[in-house]
Amino acid sequence: MNLTPRDQRTVRIAVMAIGIYLVLFLGWRSWRHLEGRREAHARLLNETLRLKRELQPYENRVLLAQKLKETYHLDPQKLAKATLVAQASAAIQSTARAGGVQVGPIRESPARSSNKELTSMQLEGVGPVPAVMTLLHQLETLGFPLILDAIQLSPDAKPGMLKINLTIVILDFEQWKNEGVPHV
């Protein structure tokens, strides 16, 4: 089958026209497909950034809670409400004795009406000034939710000795936990 030069030229033009048409048609479809994928990626990226912004305050709270737990040696999950007062009292007494403070009577009174406290304790003791100051410092690192409500210091009859009268409030973490999360 021999083609004349005119037929060959016509075939070449037709092949080029079909090729250009296919390149434009397939190129346009490929371009639309890639553009759709780019838009989907951009939407996914925006959603990721939005979620990251929403979670940022909670990450800060977690870091703050971990820092407080490490600083005060406090783990709220390990605190049993039934034995918390007895354990805290024993820890306070052993810390005082270890530091050289002689512990006197301890009186417990019911919690105030705020319902965020388990009990209030009054503790009396006598010891050297450095021992009393060390006790006051160590109370925050005992691992219990304690608040020093009142401190009364007075000199003892013996030189260099100090009388201490503390009012300590033991908090109820269950009540604090159920308070709800503030809006950020």
Short description:
This protein is of the alpha+beta class and 184 residues long. Helices cover 54% and strands 23% of the residues.
Report on this model:
The chain has 184 residues and is α+β, with helices and mostly antiparallel strands. The chain has 2 domains: 1-72; 74-177, Ribosomal protein S6/Translation elongation factor EF1B (Alpha-Beta Plaits), CATH 3.30.70.60. 54% of the residues lie in helices and 23% in strands. The chain contains 4 helices and 4 strands, in the order H-H-E-E-H-E-E-H. The chain has a 4-stranded antiparallel β-sheet with strand order 1-2-4-3. The chain starts with a helix and ends in a 7-residue tail after the last helix.
Write out key terms for the chains shown.
2 domains; single chain; Alpha-Beta Plaits; alpha+beta; 4-stranded antiparallel sheet; 54% helix; 184 residues; rod-shaped
Describe the secondary-structure layout.
Blueprint: H1 5-72, H2 84-99, E1 102-110, E2 117-128, H3 129-138, E3 146-155, E4 161-171, H4 173-177
Antiparallel strand pairs: 1-2, 2-4, 3-4
CATH topology of the largest domain: Alpha-Beta Plaits
Largest sheet, in brief, is: 4 strands, antiparallel
Low-confidence stretches: none
The CATH class of the largest domain is identified as Alpha Beta
Cα radius of gyration in angstroms:
38 Å
